């Protein structure tokens, strides 16, 4: 079953991301209270537990894998296999996939070692289409492909 494992919010640059049991996702803005909740196409970052396992298996740490932490961690679904424009319903919120993959920083030890970084292909970004509460354990439904 596809579900939410973790929700994380970063309130300021100085603070680390904080795990929360539930959070409010606001239409056209993103995760309420998150430093990146400013609108645009990269309002929410999503990564699966399966992708996180791949990242942990790298023999070195890259700039992205050290600095990047997603807002939503999923399990049981490979959202990166769905095209941009796919809509997903999670709890009371609806989000639309806007970007597949994250750009790698120059000088990244993972790319220099010729490893295929999971963040480049498996991280996704979404925008909030319908506001709502999302909590850990919520089911993920694909509502538009």
From TrEMBL:
<dbReference type="InterPro" id="IPR011037">
    <property type="entry name" value="Pyrv_Knase-like_insert_dom_sf"/>
</dbReference>
<dbReference type="GO" id="GO:0030170">
    <property type="term" value="F:pyridoxal phosphate binding"/>
</dbReference>
<dbReference type="InterPro" id="IPR005302">
    <property type="entry name" value="MoCF_Sase_C"/>
</dbReference>
<dbReference type="Pfam" id="PF03473">
    <property type="entry name" value="MOSC"/>
</dbReference>
<dbReference type="GO" id="GO:0030151">
    <property type="term" value="F:molybdenum ion binding"/>
</dbReference>
<protein>
    <submittedName>
        <fullName>MOSC domain-containing protein</fullName>
    </submittedName>
</protein>
<dbReference type="GO" id="GO:0003824">
    <property type="term" value="F:catalytic activity"/>
</dbReference>
<feature type="domain" description="MOSC">
    <location>
        <begin position="18"/>
        <end position="143"/>
    </location>
</feature>
<dbReference type="InterPro" id="IPR052716">
    <property type="entry name" value="MOSC_domain"/>
</dbReference>
């Amino acid at each position: 079953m596809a579900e939410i494992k973790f929700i994380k919010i970063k309130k300021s640059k100085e603070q680390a991301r904080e795990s929360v049991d539930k959070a409010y996702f606001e239409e056209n803005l993103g995760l309420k209270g998150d430093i990146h909740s400013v609108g645009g196409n990269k309002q929410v970052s999503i990564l699966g537990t399966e992708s996180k396992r791949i990242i942990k298996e790298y023999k070195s740490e890259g700039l992205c894998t050290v600095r990047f932490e997603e807002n939503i961690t999923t399990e049981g679904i490979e959202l990166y296999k769905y095209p941009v424009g796919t809509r997903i319903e999670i709890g009371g919120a609806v989000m639309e996939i806007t970007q597949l993959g994250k750009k790698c920083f120059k000088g990244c030890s993972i790319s220099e070692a010729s490893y295929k970084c999971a963040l480049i292909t498996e991280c996704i970004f979404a925008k909030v289409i319908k506001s709502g509460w999302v909590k850990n354990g919520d089911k993920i439904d694909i509502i538009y492909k």
